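[audit] Reproducing an earlier prediction to check determinism. Same input, same settings, fresh worker. If the tokens differ from the archived copy the diff job will pick it up downstream; this log only records the rerun itself.
[audit] input (309 residues):
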Amino acid sequence: MEQARQLPVGEEIFLDHVAHFVPDMAEAHRDLNRLGFVQTPYTEHRHRLDETSDPVPSGTANRCIMLPEGYIEVIAVSDATTELGKRTQGQLDRYVGLHLIAFSCVDPESVQGRLTLTGFHPQPLVHLKRPVTLPDGGEDEASFTCCRVRPQDMPEGRVQYVTHLSEDIVWQERWMRHGNGIVALRDVIIGAEVLDKTAARYCWFLNRGGPKPVSGNIWRVPLDRGGVVIADEEGLEQLVPGAELPDEGPLVAGYGLLSADLSQTEAFFRERGFEPERVDNFLRLTLPETLGGTLFIAAEDADFPWAGR
């Protein structure tokens, strides 16, 4: 697979990353090691209240799995007394697993204005910082600007836009080669009780013209890289057998990844004691309870079960 641009340009929107919310970062770290993922060091998030203030702790900490296209984040609560820490803990109390979807854009101020006009309620832009170690042993600071909306606007979890201001230090080569052969993040899968309303909401949020029906129970909202797959209860059962929607609302059920060599990826997982299911031309792997969620892994975008071949 040819490596594409990491970040969007102009009006493009990419699926940038997804995040697992976990109660125990050490246990999650061990299972990700078994899965063959290289992870960035544990770091605590900080943010600025405005452009001139000093960074303050946000209440969460992370590790990241950097990929040549996109990344996967693992988040734990570091301080449950902060606003973000409380919100993160509340989502963890619903279930352990995927609670964050981040879409990358070039101009967060423009996105903030568009979201307001389309009926969302964006919060003030958040200027995030986190320390990043450098290959020479030094340290720098990664910078991001996030545009978030009210929790009730996107009940799946923390669905937001992000603009990266420090690409080179975030995507370091030493973190992007994984023993399992995974090279790219693609689509995120959402289970929802009402398919059409959820799809319409994502089209408004992402400034897309309309979803593409894959079947009567599964629709997809395509982006300039990646996309959002939305399934009702029947469609979710087709994609993730046994998955159920929480009583309190929709579910971020899993996501798609591309492998440089699907057979090698399957063999790696089996050697590590995992049992991926081979279905047609993709793998489906239920992650350990320490992480939550389901992986769909294919060699080509056309091989995912929602590709609509």
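[audit] rerun output stored. Observation attached for the diff report: The helical segments are 25-34, 83-94, 108-117, 167-170, 195-206, 233-239, 262-271.
[audit] end
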